Amino acid sequence: MTLDQPLAQRPDAGYVFETSWPLASGDIDQFERLSVDGVARYLQEAGAQHLVHAEAFDAHPFWIVRRTVMDVHQPIAWPDKIHLARWCSGISPRWCNMRVRVTSEGGGLIETEGFWINMNMETKGPSRMEDHFFDRLATTTDEHRLRWRPWLTEPVNAVHEQPFALRRSDTDRLDHVNNSIYLQAMREVFPQVSDLVDGPFRLVIEYNKPITFGEDVRIATAPEQSADGRDGLRFWMTVDGDPRTHAILTTIP
Predict the structure, then answer these.
(1) How many other β-carbons are positioned within 10 Å of the β-carbon of residue 203?
(2) Quick one: 191 and 91 in the same domain?
(3) What is the pTM of this model?
């Protein structure tokens, strides 16, 4: 898959986990729509529930995400009830692509895909999944030799920079800034590019290195234009000039 390719369709057979809950008022933006950081939190929650449902949580409790693709086709507005369907769209013994389709009873649609790595907290490195879990996830994809390839490699060439203050509550159990906080940082620049987020858009974010509490974080942005002329925005979160994450926001034609 490449930066502009459509996400994989839901398979007709295999293990697809489904869950649902009411849209929480704490996860909406100023327009009373499910925010992008709210989506990130819901993807984490769906993943945790999925592990429990698959009886795989005890053996695979620690995961990190390297990339998230988020296609907002139709916003989900509060109040509403959301439904999440989660399945594997590519896998190797230590990591996988997990598709999540988020729909709502009011007609909202957000398609996502995340590259997730199963971690061993003793070695601080990727860990093999147990065979029964691997086999179950693999029922929804023919891609069983998934490799990590970054999509976003442009060096920082910011047109605008601004600080982003961290709070202790922004860190997770690995002592890293939670991945939803990076999406909160992106929301700081949304008012500057309201034309990009008023209609359907794709957001791709790759997490290069962890950010920890106490570091001096800056948001860097630059305008972007796709090969077919669509406007977009590049986004980095940097520490001392080092890009810890890289994202791109583009409209969906």
Answers:
(1) 22
(2) no
(3) 0.96
